Amino acid sequence: MNMLKEIEKAVNLLKKQNIEKFDIFATISHGFSVEVKDKKVEKIKVPLKKGVAIRVIIDGKMGFAYTRDTSDDGIRIAIECARDNASGSDPDEYEISMPAKPSIEFSLSDENFKNISLERKIEIAKALEEKAYSLDSRVKKVRKASYSDSITKVFYYNSNDHSFSYETTAYSLSIMVKAEDGSDSQMGWDFDAVRKFSNLNSDLVASRAVENATLLLGAKPIKTQKIPVIFKNTVFAELIDALSAGFLGNNVLRKKSLFTNRLGFEIASHVLSIHDNPLTEDGMGSRPYDDEGTVTRKKAIIERGVLKNFLVDIYSARKLNLSPTGNGIRHGIESLPQSGITNLVVEPGALNLEQLIRTPEEVLVITDAMGIHTINPISGEFSIGVSGLLIKEGNIVQPVTGCTVAGNVKKLLQNISEVGRDSRWLGNISSPSVLIKELMVGGE
């Protein structure tokens, strides 16, 4: 299918109908995924997705429609639906992006994508499972080992004659293992997601999953106490992901942000800086334009503890009297662009994880957390289940499970005393491990 030709037809139809403002967003993607268990292929998927989204503005009223049917009739009907939806909406201040030159200077696509054989992909998933078993005799079961990939092409055109297209690729591995020692058993999971096939590392993914499971064998709760806590890199990345809704313009507009009316104020420790960076080569959220055609750029969200920017699309920027930041993100062809993140990057500090652990005399290192996304997005209150390692003077005292940490995110951010340098990506969030001065840990 030639998506460019379909978009040209949509543009011609829209112009013939004298629609003052419009934009067209289209994607086509395909990929492959395989799950392996006990050296056998359990599941294979070969998804293909395509679609066209059309937004029109008529007399200040916005209408939206999308279609998975990219035939002439499918697009014509989508345009009619968008017009009808506009007629039934209320007037508002809607704008369409203007042309701008992107500053991204690297490819988002792996030129070798089509050269990787089906057999090689299955072989990688099997090797991932085999490696996990070989690393430690206490690994008794691999729940699943999987490989997946995708290639996506994005197209955009609007009534300001602003158009672009770009292609992205993604590869990922994941594995879940079960380790046993006597009557005790623990689960361990790990993953990797990269843009280039050559950067996949199945040995690393297997070893991290095995370590996550075996380190917790014999784990038990500690006594309820206030204690310094280290959120390991992936756990703090999950926490930042949960907090990210508070940085978004549409939530600020609806007064559903923890940080409403806090722009320019200190909201965290001076050691914490976070950027939204769509121009980093390692980021799975990198892109030259956002999904409504605004050129993307790196911008500080928190800089040395101070809230510097909200992330806004064109609409929320106008309502908040801010400039668009290139963060109009669609969560699929069926959704309108709203403010969202590209890549959130917690700026690393000076200490590696071993140095971070030795900073306080005693510390709980949290390696896994459950319920992070139950944090109240307005009050900031939280209570989450955790497991990890109790460390004293740099040595492991005991593995820990069955505990909770509770408090308020506002205080937690203020109580960050050190940020590590062991950055790792969790999807489109990059974070190092972070030391919190003190946190209430509920246990025995």
TrEMBL record:
GO CC term, one of those recorded: cytosol
InterPro entries: Metalloprtase-TldD/E_C (IPR045569), Metalloprtase-TldD/E_cen_dom (IPR045570), Metalloprtase-TldD/E_N (IPR002510), PmbA (IPR047657), TldD/PmbA_N (IPR035068), TldD/PmbA_sf (IPR036059)
One BP term from GO: proteolysis
Domain named Metalloprotease TldD/E C-terminal: residues: 224-443
Ranges where the Metalloprotease TldD/E N-terminal domain occurs: 23-86
Top-rank taxon: Bacteria
Domain Metalloprotease TldD/E central residues, every copy: 112-217
Molecular function per GO: metallopeptidase activity
Family according to the record: Belongs to the peptidase U62 family.
Protein name: PmbA protein
